[in-house]
Amino acid sequence: MKNTIQPTLKERVMRDDDFIVSKTDLKGRITYANEIFIEFSGYSQYELLNTQHNIIRHPDMPRAVFHLLWKTLESGREFNGYVKNMSKDGSFYWVFANVTPSYDENKAVIGYYSVRRKPSAQAVSVVDPIYKEMLAAEKKAGAKNAIDVATQLLLDKLQGVDYEQFALSI
Ligand SMILES: Cc1cc2nc3c(=O)[nH]c(=O)nc-3n(C[C@H](O)[C@H](O)[C@H](O)COP(=O)(O)O)c2cc1C
Questions:
Q1: Which residue, by CA, sits nearest to atom 26 of ligand 1?
Q2: Per residue in 39-85, pLDDT tens?
Q3: DSSP string of the chain?
Q4: Less crowded by CB within 10 Å, the N or C end of the chain?
Q5: Is any ligand 1 atom within 6 A of the Cβ of residue 92?
């Protein structure tokens, strides 16, 4: 269904005190969504639950960013970064996301948890052109090399600063 949505230029902007919260299982299927998530995504709770989190994936997002997100989580660390999401009506909204693994009492990972805040306009103005360049590089490289090429481009842009440090500094 999500592939049939036409992205539009309409932006939804988070309010200063908004938190968009979701939880997923180990495979990235949504197990919890708060009211603000429902509001911004435009989907009902029923549509969101048990659905892959990529239901709100925006086609402008480089694959390499999600690769980094999953690699970070799988190594047991938290991910902090900027994501452009797409609502059910095709509009978009930028978030600053913190994503963490959730553990059971035996310290086994049982799922993931994400809280998003409103990103500063300044941060979005820095990240947006970088993501655009990454996306263009991915398209040029083709599916097989897309992630490697865009990851390298990001590394070059950040000149030795890791993405999380960069994300928290802008
Ligand atoms: C807790 C959690 C939250 C996530 N939040 C988002 C999100 O807000 N937007 C998004 O596009 N992907 C999010 N993802 C990543 C998706 O699972 C998925 O990897 C991404 O949308 C790329 O889709 P694809 O893997 O089908 O290319 C999240 C993953 C986890 C584990």
A1: 54
A2: 999 999 999 999 999 999 999 999 999 999 999 999 999 999 999 99
A3: -GGGPPP-S-B----TT--EEEEE-TTSBEEEE-HHHHHHH---HHHHTTSBGGGGB-TTS-HHHHHHHHHHHHTT--EEEEEEEE-TTS-EEEEEEEEEEEE-TTS-EEEEEEEEEPPPHHHHHHHHHHHHHHHHHHHHH-TTTHHHHHHHHHHHHHTT--HHHHHHH-
A4: N
A5: no
